[in-house]
Amino acid sequence: MFDSIGQWLNDISQNLPGALGLFAVGLILLIKGGDWFVDSASNLAKRFHVPEIIIGATVVSIGTTLPEVMVSATAAINNNGATAYGNAIGSIICNTALIAALTIAIRPAPVNRKAITMPVIFFFISAAIYVVAAYMFGTFDRWLGIVMLCVFALYMALTIRQGFKNPDAVEHTEEEAPKGSLTKDIVVLIVSAGLIALGANFLEKSAVSLSLMAGIPTEVVSVTVVALCTSLPELVTAITALRKGHGALSLGNVIGANIFNLVLVSGVAVTVSPFKVPAGSTIFGQNTSLVLEIPLMIGVMALMTVPALMKKKLFRSQGFILLGIYGVFVLLQVLIALHII
Asked: Is a pLDDT exceeding 80 seen at residue 13?
């Protein structure tokens, strides 16, 4: 049965209308599945009186990152390391230079240095692991994926511990009683996880097909289009936080999501199926990933976080500079796709 379904999906994705339709359906399933997953998981946690900090640090954060996890894991299983790799790096660049940049440009906010110091340190430690793997080994082996997942587990444990030690740093909201029944929450949780997995499969297959049809390296599609689509939950969270006047909260969500992309998304993908650093995309004859994407990933995070740590606030100019960088990045990817550079 599953083989026939897989063949059916392959047949659909071989033509342009089918691939576009598959991409759209996959995107919808990812967004709605992620939304329902967070709601049902949060309801379950509240039913069992799990503290709010744990819900925020685990259920909600992981829930908004599930699209990236599933897309990258599916790609790795299908031996498409370029999509898994590009999705993780592209999501970090998108989260920082587009999503966070928009909130900073529109409404810069004070920063709680104590609250973001540990996440920032963890991000750059995780980035260092990524750099060593990419530049020294040229491959992401299974043992490295396990190390990444261990870093993720340590980060989660320390985040929860910090929340218990500094409850005043956690934004509290009036907790409402969960609606519906326990059975409904469990069913919705299972169904939503299935929708996310199915949507990830659709998105991965269609992205590969579209890149092949257009003669564009899969990595280019993954680091731009797929990364932007899987970052939609973070975008929604950022817009909601901005609308409610919580710009600093949006910054924390973006930093957390970026850590998850490095150690959870990549960790799962590499552990499931190790892969080499993609070399299908080049700029001026050099591997785009090594000379553009990884340096940019680290650079935009430094541009956003270092001034915030030093000055304890964000500046509107940071947002505009980051948006300009993202615009140039997308332009370069278009030029690469058109084989102009």
From this structure: no
